[in-house]
Request: fold
Amino acid sequence: MNDFHIPPPSDLTVRMHPKTINTSPASHLQRTNNFNLCRLVLAILVIVSHGPELIDGNRHRELLTQLFHTISFGEFAVDGFFLISGYLITQSWHETPQAFSFLKKRVLRIFPGFIAWSLICAVIVGPLAADPRYFFQFDIPAFAKGMLALQVPQVPPVFVGSHYPLINGSMWTISYEFYCYLAILAFGIFGLLRHRASWLSTALILLALNVLHNFGVQTTCFGFCDLVNPIYRLSMFFFAGGCFFLYRDSLRYEKKFLIVLIPLLLAALFSIRTAEIALATLGGYLLFYFALARIPVLSYFNKLPDV
Reply:
């Protein structure tokens, strides 16, 4: 794995050196990055994490929780997804800074798949997990409203008696993902993404709010900020990911930094107060170090559709 440095946005050339790989065009990044593999691994970690939780109703057998006693592989994976989205969606606006085009791509990215899977859950999975009165109890307007709001499928009672009587509860993160898309749209429309310091400042504010929450400080912001709301944690990772893209000209991904960053991250994961903050910063560096590295043996994953 070579050390590499991402050039400033104005650099449209691709230059290679034994120790440095300069990369700017999106098409080149799409052929050589490892984002597809990263998302596949994160999706698998969600399944690995939820398995024992669905059986036990708690995390006492969840692997990462057993190791660090803080976060689960499910939380770890969701954090990684939002870091990657922050990077790639910020890049998407940078390549095509047009509001209608951006929103169209984001809607087509989210809604068709979400609607299709909601219907599969409601029409196929639901009846298998409910009593015979399922369709008689089905509230079509409520289901449609929830689906358009990107909520977990609103269906009659399913999996009654289980620890989690839901259909595909993992879909809860999708609405927050779309909110983050709208945040980029707003920043772009008002020209704030032309001044990356505004994005960085917002990321730092979100980091600070999460630090306050983790250390038990009650911050309500006159009822506006409910720091228990997942939007603050998830948007922190999204904005952190965006920072890694916007400041790619200032970042160097080098092996020598890993000697320090990996032990620091592992140590931080042992405390619930520092785990998420460390993942958004140190973990973000390690994630993009791997995602942007050129590793020929992993090139197969670039040929797959978006997993």
Notes: Residues 1-29 have pLDDT under 50 and may be disordered.
